[in-house]
Amino acid sequence: MSTEKSANGLDFKMLVSEQGTASQLPALQRFEARDGTALAYRHYPSESPTALIVLHGSGTDSKYLATFAQALADAGAAVVYTPDVRGHGPSPQRRGDIDYIDQLEDDLADFIYHIKTENSVVSQVVVGGHSSGGGLAVRFAGGEYGHLASAYLLLAPYLGHDAPTVRNNSGGWAEPSVAKIIALSLLNKLGVTSLNGLTVLRFNLPPEYRNGSETLAYSYRLMTGFNPSNYRDELRSINVPSLFLSGAEDEALFADRFESTVRPHIPDAEIVTVPGTSHLGLLVSEEGIEVVRHWLQGV
Question: Per 3-state DSSP, what percentage of the chain is helix, strand, and coil (rounded to 5)?
Fold first, then answer.
């Protein structure tokens, strides 16, 4: 993949190539969350008894995961599901917002129930995610539903603004309203949540890469619910197989710091860095996909 970068430091060319295959994407399907909302996902069939859920990163939706998901399904490594996280996608109920901070975890638990109900072949569910989606997977692992996952696949996961693995403002991709975030965090500690719908985070997706389905601003509750609460505690809660995969040329994260950041909390984690691979390029890297395929077949 080309390493030519946009002004904010990220290489978005992959988004264009993936959007160009939109006509070949599996159609969006729907499942009903506990609040009655119909949430969208894509399904990549396989006869494997392993179901892999891959959560997309911030600002976008499940489309860019297509090459990665299809390759793993075609290889028989897993049946793959890529949901559009609530507040994202072509036509969300409220773009860039959710109802309460823990709602994304509830949605993911509901989705796992849906998969097990609809696909009787599935005997285990691997929860995975890329970038902020990886952060949500880590948050899920440390929450009340973490036991629902048989393993965790963390693809260049965002572990939080204070993690050693994160570059300043994720390499220029994110623009947080720091003062507003601090104020709302303090109010939440006091039990005041009425202002959690305020916008506190914006993303720098260049106009030439936009197609109308991007989500370029987050409310406080969506930003908070999409990220780990305390990555150290949540990592320590992972007591099932886990793979941390990142690209050596990641523009948003320090790939060489995952070993020292993750290993103290998950001694048995598999931590792999793919040479010559960027943050988004990880999802189309043949070498990276092969690492995941081999790991999944051993889970």
Answer: 35, 20, 45
pTM for this structure? 0.94
CA 145 to chain centre: 17
8 Å CB contact between 287 and 4: no
Tokens of 200: 């506190």
**Residue whose pair of structure tokens reads 């001694």 in the numeric block:** 267
Q: How far apart are CA 99 and CA 47, in angstroms?
A: 36
Alpha helices in the chain (DSSP H): 13-19, 66-74, 103-118, 132-141, 178-189, 220-225, 231-236, 258-262, 286-296
Alpha-carbon distance of 242 to 263, in angstroms, equals 11
Angle in degrees, 0-180, between the axes of helices 103-118 and 132-141, rounded to the nearest 10: 80
The per-residue pLDDT for range 80-110, each reduced to its tens digit, is 999 999 999 999 999 999 999 999 999 999 9
pLDDT per position as a tens digit, 200-235: 999 999 998 898 999 999 999 999 999 999 999 999
φ and ψ at 218, to 5 degrees? -120, 145
> How many Cα atoms are found within 13 Å in the side-chain-facing hemisphere of 131?
24
Give SS3 for 247.
strand
